Amino acid sequence: MNEVYHIPALLPQALESLNIKPSGTYVDATFGGGGHSRAIVECLGEEGHLYSFDQDLEAVANAFDDSRFTIVHGNFRFMRNFLRYYEAGAVDGILADLGVSFHHFDDPDRGFSFRFDGPLDMRMNRDAKLSAADIVNGYSEQQLADIFYMYGELKSARRIASAIVKARVQERITTTEQLIATVDHLLDRRDRKTDLAKLFQALRIEVNHELDALKQLLEQSVKALRPGGRLVVITYHSLEDRLVKNFMRTGNIRGEEAKDFFGRNLSPFKLVTSKPIVPDAAEIESNPRSRSAKMRVAQLIEQS
Known about the structure:
Elements lengths: L1 H4 L5 H8 L6 E4 L6 H8 L6 E6 L2 H4 L8 E5 L5 H7 L5 E7 L4 H5 L25 H7 L2 H12 L4 H14 L5 H8 L8 H17 L1 H15 E11 L2 H13 L18 E3 L9 H6 L7 E7 L4
Parallel strand pairs: 1-2, 1-4, 2-3, 4-5
Antiparallel strand pairs: 5-7, 6-7
Helix pairs in contact: 8-9, 8-11, 12-13
């Protein structure tokens, strides 16, 4: 089941980047199918422990039984609260693979993909109140345009928002097929699939507050990690990657570099890799969905 649910990207590179100590404590912020988590636990000794997070009960169902492993049903934005609850103390490494599991994209009932007709849902946590249908039918034209432009980087954001608002007056838009039919005439035939992917990405980010959650995870990592601990983040689009890059470089979400009197960078992190780690040709061939993955690695600076 786990292999079908999701194939972890950059698995060997992630394990190497975490610099796993057998007795260390680690966090997998995005459990998914459990691929990364299982591999991390295999590197641990009896005193080591891994805490894995996922807000989706279908992912939590993939959890495995091991004394060195704890599954947490919750959003990683609450990481520090849960670590305090489990009295975990500071951790030696945090891994976050921000990709959507294959299972979500391939299940029509979840509404994540434009490849299938299904309910316009896109909630990672199915107990959450806000769905993609609520956004499409309830947000103002300006709000929709802003979302499509900021989170989907769609040049035709305003025209798409206008078309949706006009269409929903006649009939509530509740399925992926209805949404596509509403905006299809506005898409360039050559870039149709790319633009649909961007549209669905924008809605998914808004439904799940993905960028806000990522910001909170990054900010918490400074206090959650012990000195010398590693932060490893795998992103899949430029919005995420830009946030992670700026944070690791400067230590703040704004990407504003602070320096001391001598001009030295005051970021709490040092970059382990100057450029992102990406899949090689062999991985892309065996797992095409990994082609957009970028992994960045930083280490919390040890106090002198």
